[in-house]
């Protein structure tokens, strides 16, 4: 008797090579360049939300490093080592879930064997998932090995929360931030694999899955598996709506029409009906935001829309819906947050219900002067102008490049590029950076665009970013922070060694200082 086992799509379709990986081209490009040009780092950190490919990239990288045909970005997939990595039984790939092994004894036991040569492969690879869950003592133990790693050891760290990692660990890793995969990419991938798997599906069904996955390919495949079972072998849009507690496009259309007509009572009746059906109001409000976006695009392109609203009204309602969607995580319950968003739409929509909201003057008191649409329109314009003027003056007022970065919303690889660069020159329409050659593998078009967008947002105006790789004779921000961190570490160690109370304890209990972690700055 042969036992037939079903393998879920998320495992069956897990990428085994970099070419199969979807949606992370910026990371793949940098890793492939390093592998193919023998520019290997001893520690890699992959950050990003769940299901975007952190551990998958780690396993592919382990395969690339140990393939019997040599180190390359394109492992053969056929040798015994490649097969063992794919089947999770390669002895020199040590995978650890830090969430379940947080104690320092666990980490010490793990790293004790790092000094020994690999059993079969070229490198001994430590793949530590959710590394931010390690205790402070565990990080100290890990840091000792990261500071002086054996040549035959590679660390691949993965986390959903890099802010919880000590700076001392971050500074010793080559960091890659994995992006959420956009719904169009997820949709295209699902369309392709369902056709290959010969599974019947409706286009509307996979569109719902792509939106519900929220950027996680693993979640998309898991929902697809669940939906196939729910739909008895096929993917039907109606089944997805029921299974996920969503609202169909026809119901969203009805809601938009009632919003446009200002029919508050009808909207509240529909909300009550949806609540009885167990509707996910957060997802529904997200669908309404998307619907207003589509209306705005169609209107701007001169296309005939199903709901006739002026461009300014669409923009206003979109903004109200978006702000309501952002607030859904802090409202007492999702239904009340959804209803309040509808109330705002009716209250502020020109020509809507006469909901009297007394205006406030500059001192926060009720004003006799009415707030008209022109005043509402004027206020945001003045705010944008003010921010733009402030942004333009910031770099001209003598702020250092480090101070500029502290005020910009950067993270991941783009932040590493900026911290390892110096500001060469800047004009009213151009900023030029010089990047340390030791970090040139980080640079690609995607990272340049991301950094340029952050600069434009910070300055409040469009500027062209130029990044050149060249020798740097002054200290970069990254170098300065590493030096400061080492100094703080040395000071902390010296302080404890000289502390009479600590020395007395060590002598009394015959103890030793296992590790010292400086307190956070400002403490």
How are the SSEs placed, and which strands pair?
Layout: H1 9-12, H2 25-36, E1 43-47, H3 54-66, H4 80-86, E2 93-97, H5 104-112, E3 124-129, H6 136-147, E4 153-159, H7 167-170, E5 174-177, H8 183-196, H9 203-212, H10 217-230, H11 237-244, H12 249-261, H13 264-276, H14 281-300, H15 311-327, H16 334-348, H17 373-396, H18 401-407, H19 412-419, E6 421-426, E7 430-435, H20 445-459, E8 464-469, H21 477-498, H22 500-508
Parallel strand pairs: 1-4, 1-5, 2-3, 3-4, 7-8
Antiparallel strand pairs: 6-7
| Overall mean pLDDT | 81
User: Largest sheet, described in full?
Assistant: 5 strands, parallel
Low-confidence stretches: 352-379, 381-392
Helix content range: 40-55%
Radius of gyration: 28 Å
SSE succession:
HHEHHEHEHEHEHHHHHHHHHHHHEEHEHH
Q: How many distinct domains?
A: 4
Quick tags:
523 residues; 4 domains; three-stranded mixed sheet; Rossmann fold; single chain; Zinc Finger, Delta Prime, domain 3; Helicase, Ruva Protein, domain 3; alpha/beta; globular
Written account of the structure:
It is a single chain. With 523 residues, the protein is of the alpha/beta class. It folds into four domains: 9-177, P-loop containing nucleotide triphosphate hydrolases (Rossmann fold, 3-Layer(aba) Sandwich), CATH 3.40.50.300; 183-244, Helicase, Ruva Protein, domain 3 (Orthogonal Bundle); 249-348, Zinc Finger, Delta Prime, domain 3; 391-477, DNA polymerase III, tau subunit, domain V (GMP Synthetase, Chain A, domain 3), CATH 3.30.300.150. The protein has helices at residues 9-12, 25-36, 54-66, 80-86, 104-112, 136-147, 167-170, 183-196, 203-212, 217-230, 237-244, 249-261, 264-276, 281-300, 311-327, 334-348, 373-396, 401-407, 412-419, 445-459, 477-498, 500-508; strands at 43-47, 93-97, 124-129, 153-159, 174-177, 421-426, 430-435, 464-469. α5 (104-112) links the parallel β2 (93-97) and β3. The model is unreliable at 352-379 and 381-392 (pLDDT under 50).
